[in-house]
């Protein structure tokens, strides 16, 4: 199965994609993670993306399409992939259709995660991530089992994203509304769109997505 998780910043896309990857053997393709790795490595792409990401704006489509095209072509993506953070514009969605068509692959489901704007800001400002394995946490909603120690890899180092603040969140939300929300009718018209209640607890959201993947 190949799916897209679609939702505003902080909706829970990364959280659910990590769990789907761990439990269902699909691969998480997070364009945000790929871009942050590019920024950290100082690559050409990273240099172009850094300031744009810090402002909360979208990285140009041409760069994003090249990035995801290379990733989808890698052998592990044949197990089924979860797109987390891509596509974010209509041009990206069209480019995705084209690349999947050429590769003989298909998009099975687009899962919309609906969350109130107030809850999104609370999620974003409390978010932190294991610096070693990338597991996501939250100060209030998903603390490590032992304070200061990653549940998955035992690391004691965590990071916070520069763009995870209330100010940048406004720009990110505006980009979502103007450029990404129009993808809902785009996929709705194709019959692949399904909704989950992103306000529910993480386990419940996971249960709803699993139901969609098994055909419910
Ligand atoms: P996204 O990838 O859509 O930006 P994340 O999965 O990183 O979102 O989630 C944002 C933050 O909210 C993280 O700190 C995560 O632990 C927390 N979170 C995710 N899903 C839920 C949920 N259903 N209820 C409460 N907090 C959540
Ligand atoms: P979130 O999980 O909070 O929605 P991401 O980690 O997906 O955020 O993305 C962080 C930033 O990376 C975005 O604000 C944007 O600048 C850039 N980015 C990620 N994916 C894309 C994309 N598909 N198109 C354009 N910019 C992107
Ligand atoms: Zn870890």
Keyphrases for this structure?
216 residues, alpha/beta, five-stranded parallel sheet, three-stranded antiparallel sheet, binds adenosine-5'-diphosphate, binds zinc ion
Q: Please tell me how large the radius of gyration is.
A: 17 Å
Bound molecules: adenosine-5'-diphosphate, zinc ion
Strand content: 5-15%
Order of helices and strands: EHEHHHEHEHEEEHHEH
Mean pLDDT: 97
Strand order of the largest sheet: 2-3-1-4-8
Based on secondary structure, the structural category is alpha/beta
Number of strand segments:
8
The low-pLDDT segments are none
Kindly, what is the distance between the CA atoms of the first and last residues, rounded to a whole number of angstroms? Answer: 14 Å
Overall outline: globular
SSE order and pairing:
Blueprint (H helix, E strand, L loop, with lengths): L2 E4 L6 H12 L2 E4 H11 L2 H12 L5 H12 L8 E4 L5 H13 L6 E6 L2 H9 L1 E4 L5 E3 L19 E2 L6 H15 L2 H6 L4 E5 L4 H12 L3
Parallel strand pairs: 1-3, 1-4, 2-3, 4-8
Antiparallel strand pairs: 5-6, 5-7
Helix pairs in contact: 1-9, 2-3, 4-5
What would you note in describing this structure?
By secondary structure, this protein is α/β, with parallel strands linked by helices. Helices cover 47% and strands 15% of the residues. It has helices at 13-24, 31-41, 44-55, 61-72, 90-102, 117-125, 166-180, 183-188, 202-213; strands at residues 3-6, 27-30, 81-84, 109-114, 127-130, 136-138, 158-159, 193-197. The protein has a five-stranded parallel β-sheet with strand order 2-3-1-4-8, sandwiched between helices. A three-stranded antiparallel β-sheet has the order 6-5-7. The radius of gyration is 17 Å and the shape is globular. Bound molecules: adenosine-5'-diphosphate (ADP) (2 copies) and zinc ion. Zinc ion binds at residues 130, 132-133, 135, 150, 152-153, 155.
């Amino acid at each position: 199965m190949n799916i897209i998780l679609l939702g505003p910043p902080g909706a829970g896309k990364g959280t659910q994609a990590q769990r789907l990857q761990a439990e269902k053997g699909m691969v998480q393709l997070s364009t945000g993670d790929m871009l942050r790795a590019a920024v950290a490595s100082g690559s050409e792409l990273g240099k172009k993306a850094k300031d744009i990401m810090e402002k909360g704006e979208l990285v140009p489509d041409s760069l994003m399409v090249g990035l995801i095209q290379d990733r989808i072509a890698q052998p592990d993506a044949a197990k089924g992939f979860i797109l987390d953070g891509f596509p974010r514009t209509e041009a990206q969605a069209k480019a995705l259709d084209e690349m999947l068509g050429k590769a003989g692959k298909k998009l099975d489901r687009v899962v919309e995660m609906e969350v109130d704007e107030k809850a999104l800001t609370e999620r974003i400002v409390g978010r932190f991530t294991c610096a070693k394995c990338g597991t996501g946490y939250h100060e209030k909603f998903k603390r490590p089992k032992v304070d200061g120690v990653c549940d998955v890899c035992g690391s004691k180092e965590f990071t916070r994203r520069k763009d995870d603040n209330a100010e940048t969140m406004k720009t990110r939300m505006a980009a979502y509304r103007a450029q990404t929300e129009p993808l809902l009718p785009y996929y709705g018209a194709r019959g692949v769109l399904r909704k989950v209640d992103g306000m529910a607890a993480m386990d419940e959201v996971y249960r709803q997505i699993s139901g969609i993947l098994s055909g419910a």
